[in-house]
Design goal:
Elements (H helix, E strand, L loop, with lengths): L2 H10 L3 H23 L7 H27 L1
Helix pairs in contact: 1-3, 2-3
Length: about 70
């Protein structure tokens, strides 16, 4: 199984509050990477892209869960 599939399954297993916490954690990590890039300390530029995509993936799953909750009401 690929890393993305595992990540998606882990995110889908979380509830809305857990996903929001995950998004905040990923945003903090992305900010740290951006600061490292600005100070020329970042070795792997691809980690910025990966983190940004992880944030988008978590936000997408969160939006799907919230819309499903709204539809259930």
């Amino acid at each position: 199984m690929s890393k993305i599939t595992e990540s998606r399954k882990n995110l889908q297993a979380k509830d809305a509050a857990g996903l929001q916490a995950e998004v905040k954690e990923l945003q903090k990590a992305h900010f740290g990477l951006r600061m490292q890039k600005g100070t020329q300390q970042l070795n792997n530029n691809a980690s910025l892209r990966a983190t940004r995509r992880d944030i988008a993936r978590a936000k997408t799953i969160l939006a799907q869960k919230l819309s499903a909750e709204q539809a259930a009401k």
